[in-house]
């Protein structure tokens, strides 16, 4: 088979000569890649914001933590939040109805999620333990950076607690971050 000579060619700044059809293909590919990068950036832009601090930033309240409501409490609701005003800390509002705990555990990577580990009641004292739990598939890659994981726990009961202790179990270890008494 005999090859035809190239009648039209484009010479790049590097001195490389390409048939004009090849350059056109490369230019189309570059446009596609640029467009794909722009669309990807727009698609994930909402994933990195801090949110506006409302209780529903992380979605609907969930009890999928596997933690049962302890005896003596009517309901305990755990809600992950996007906002994290005080990384590693927690704020307790005993005067609210229901009692509210808003805090932030620190995860070791992008696959870490906040989870309600336990809620225990002893007379008027309530102990809340929130953990940073890694949730990933075997072949899933995660960002290797510390992440702030906001949460809110609501304790609803006819007889509100007189004292709330909040314990975090995260990348900084297990420690008490708030101990509030009415």
Produce a short descriptive summary.
This protein is mainly β. It contains 1 helix and 10 strands.
Please give the structural blueprint:
Elements lengths: L8 E3 L5 E3 H25 L30 E7 L8 E4 L5 E9 L4 E11 L2 E10 L12 E10 L6 E8 L2 E9 L1
Parallel strand pairs: 7-9
Antiparallel strand pairs: 1-2, 3-8, 4-5, 5-8, 6-7, 9-10
Task: Give a structural overview.
Helices cover 14% and strands 41% of the residues. It is mainly beta and 182 residues long. It folds into 2 domains: 9-47, no CATH class; 75-181, no CATH class. The strands form 3 sheets. Strands 3-8-5-4 form a 4-stranded antiparallel sheet, with no helix packed on it. It has a 4-stranded mixed sheet with strand order 6-7-9-10, with no helix packed on it. Strand 6 and strand 7 form a beta hairpin. The longest helix is centred in the first third of the chain and has 25 residues, at 20-44.
Report, as a whole number of angstroms, the end-to-end distance.
93 Å
Counting DSSP H or I runs of 4 or more residues, the number of helices is 1
Mean pLDDT: 75
Largest sheet: 4 strands, antiparallel
- Overall shape: elongated
Total of domains = 2
Tell me the series of helices and strands, N- to C-terminal: EEHEEEEEEEE
Give me the Rg, rounded: 27 Å
Report the count of strand segments.
10
Helical residues, percent: 10-25%
Query: pLDDT under 50 segments (min length 5)?
Result: 22-27, 37-66
Strand composition percent: 35-45%
- Adjacency order of strands in the biggest sheet: 3-8-5-4
Structural class: mainly beta
């Amino acid at each position: 088979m005999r090859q035809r000579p190239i009648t039209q060619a484009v010479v790049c700044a590097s001195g490389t000569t390409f048939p004009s059809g090849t350059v056109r293909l490369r230019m189309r590919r570059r446009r596609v890649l640029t467009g794909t990068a722009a669309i990807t950036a727009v698609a994930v832009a909402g994933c990195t914001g801090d949110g506006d601090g409302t209780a529903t930033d992380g979605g609907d309240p969930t009890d999928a933590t596997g933690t049962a409501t302890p005896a003596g409490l009517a309901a305990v609701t755990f809600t992950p939040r996007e906002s994290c005003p005080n990384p590693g800390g927690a704020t307790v509002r005993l005067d609210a109805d229901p009692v509210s705990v808003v805090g932030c555990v620190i995860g070791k990577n992008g696959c870490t999620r906040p989870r309600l580990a336990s809620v225990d009641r002893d007379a008027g004292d309530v102990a809340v333990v929130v953990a940073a739990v890694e949730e990933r598939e075997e072949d899933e890659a995660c960002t290797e950076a510390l992440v702030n994981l906001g949460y809110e726990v609501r304790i609803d009961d006819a007889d509100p607690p007189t004292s709330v202790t909040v314990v975090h179990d995260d990348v900084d270890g297990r420690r008490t971050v708030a101990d509030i008494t009415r």
